[in-house]
Design a protein that fits this description.
alpha+beta; 2 domains; four-stranded antiparallel sheet; three-stranded antiparallel sheet; 8 helices; 7 strands; elongated; transmembrane helix; transmembrane
Length: about 250
């Protein structure tokens, strides 16, 4: 019984150590900012499906024309927000404050004009005149073009990425798989999250690597799941430092 208990405890300990063990390789990929347009791509696909299913009823003069206009407004709103994320950097505190302030002002103005249309008749008439509409082909083409760009990005990053191993940092680049090697021990890592919306979309940020004996830092922008990557690298380098210590026993 004692032997069985001991073997069971050793097995549980081994399983725990395997779970805590850092991965053998960590891949770091810097993506272009176009990938943050995936919400617009998803909305375009949803609207395209709706317009295709609705058919003639969503055409101008059909009984679902108003719904098609609402879907167009939603698409344009998401597209506009996505372009704003690409165009500007939003620091954490400032961005959230401005976002909620802008949302509150917009909702307040909309409610005021909705229930009191005679206050500013010119603006009320302009808002009532907003009736954007597009057929399913436009949404399918937009989603198709954006999808092809995403596929091109997915292919291109396979020819330019970084790999962190226990004792070295590797840069894979080029169609012929050119390789650059840097020493990983004593590697300094800086994590920067300068845009809260980009972090919310893909948990991405900037990773700055400082290899030993290298005059310039390596800057990787738009690295997805940056917090998890940073923790994995820290665990890997920490395990390496423990392994190279002399055994005093």
């Amino acid at each position: 019984m004692a032997d069985d208990s001991k073997s069971g405890g050793d097995l549980e300990k081994d399983q725990r150590s395997q779970e805590d063990a850092p991965p053998s390789s960590i891949y770091l990929i810097s993506y272009p900012k176009i990938v943050f347009l995936y919400p617009t791509f998803l909305v375009a696909v949803v609207v395209a499906i709706f317009m295709s299913i609705a058919g003639e009823s969503a055409q101008i003069g059909g009984n679902r024309e108003h719904m098609a206009e609402v879907m167009s407004l939603i698409f344009l709103g998401v597209f506009g927000l996505n372009l704003t994320v690409l165009a500007f950097d939003f620091p954490r505190t400032t961005s959230l404050t401005l976002f909620f302030l802008g949302a509150a002002l917009f909702m307040g103005a909309w409610m005021l004009l909705r229930f009191n249309p005679d206050i500013v008749p010119t603006i009320t008439g302009l808002l009532k005149g907003l009736r954007p509409w597009a057929n399913s082909q436009m949404y399918w083409l937009f989603a198709g073009i954006l999808g092809l760009i995403f596929i091109g990005v997915a292919i291109s990053v396979r020819f330019d990425y970084w790999e962190v191993k226990g004792n070295e940092l590797l840069h894979h680049h080029g169609f012929l798989s050119d390789l650059e090697r840097f020493a990983a021990p004593n590697l300094k890592i800086d994590k920067e999250i300068s845009d809260i919306f980009e972090y919310l979309l893909l948990r991405s940020g900037r990773l700055v690597l400082h290899p030993r004996n290298e005059p310039r830092a390596i800057v990787l922008d738009n690295v997805p799941f940056i917090s998890r990557k940073e923790k994995q690298i820290t665990r890997m380098l920490g395990a390496l430092q423990v392994q190279v210590r002399p055994d005093n026993h």
